Amino acid sequence: MQIVVGIVCMVAAANIQYAWTLFVPEIQATHGWTRASIQTAFTVFVVVQTWLTPIEGYFIDRYGPRAIVAFGGVMTGLSWIVDSYAGSLSMLYVGSAIGGIGVGCVYATCVNSALKWFPDKRGLAVGLTAGGYGAGSAVTILPIANMIHSSGYQATFFWFGLLQGTIILIAAFFLRAPQKDQVKASTKVLQSRRDYTLKEALQTPVFWVMMVMFICTVSGGLMAVAQLGVIAHDLGVKEAPISLFGITMAALPFALMLDRVMNGISRPLFGFVSDHIGREATMFIAFTFEGLGILMLSRFGHDPIMFLILSGLVFLAWGEVYSLFSATSADTFGTKHAAKIYGVLYCAKGVAALLVPLGNLLMEATGTWATVLYICATMDLIAAFCAIAVLRPMLRKHHARNAELAARQGTGGLAVQTGH
């Protein structure tokens, strides 16, 4: 029930990020604002969502999941309602900041809940929950696109904002934290039973290695989320009709719908895999696929079918970052302060969001998206290498130190995994 409720909340919060690209051309056509200035609103949303997560983590640990998600639902709904009345860029930015607060509360709380309820299946549990956020907008992409076309983007902002906020508010009342006797540790993945404080976690080198890897991998996917509509337009495939599986649709909405599904599938899929072969090996596989997918998108994306397939591959290999890093964080530092610790780690997404407007500027300077996509792919491949060559040995040393300390103190400090 806790997983189901968490997924419902995530689905209702997802559109603020994943449907944004549908609104950008309409806002530009209505107000004449530059593309870069409109996309700054997306950056504001992501930065607020991510950089406030450590603070939200403090309130989650203090007041529990129900109150924080209910507040997040109110703010999530209010965000799009404000956007619907935005007649200036400053008001659009205010709406985005409100949305960042709301979605941050929902996202951080639901992920934290999954981490605590299912330590023995942490990758899968977090993957399913985060998958609700990644795939949640798939069912609403077409209704939102149709309503924008028929009623205008302002009415779409208003009514979908009201609907999404209400759903989250209702679902929040079913959330609760687990009792100690309701959970059990994994026997397959190394997990610390020592609960690090935030200060202690920040003093470990492994935390900062994960932070750098997170920034590298999240940048490419975040660029695609915010800019896919723009990239499709500039590649000349936005309106190109595609017929696949008996469905005929323009390339961009088809890609957006497929990408949301692939993004959602990737989180539980790679999370499940990581529960069995380890987080670092799974990171290496996924990050390599993402890097290669972005490289091929830059090379073959001008073909509508290839644009559809390759964008789907990119999102399949990108979405898992939100299940893998959160699960690895809890494995490494324990769950008592997991909300605060992962909250700081999640700020990597805020750093990456600062690169989104730079992508527009670089594209305008070079006249092509190839340079931007090559940079993102390189960052993914670097992170893939680090997962095996840097992170894996560091985690082994980290857990070995915990086990040695626990042995001296006569306590059980580690859930031991065999063969890893």
UniProtKB/TrEMBL annotation:
Compartments, as annotated in UniProt: Membrane
Keyword set, alphabetical order: Membrane, Transmembrane, Transmembrane helix, Transport
Keyword set includes Hydrolase: no
Domain Major facilitator superfamily (MFS) profile intervals: 1-395
Primary site of residence: membrane
NCBIfam families for the chain: oxa_formateAnti (TIGR04259)
Protein name: Oxalate/formate MFS antiporter
Gene giving rise to this polypeptide: oxlT
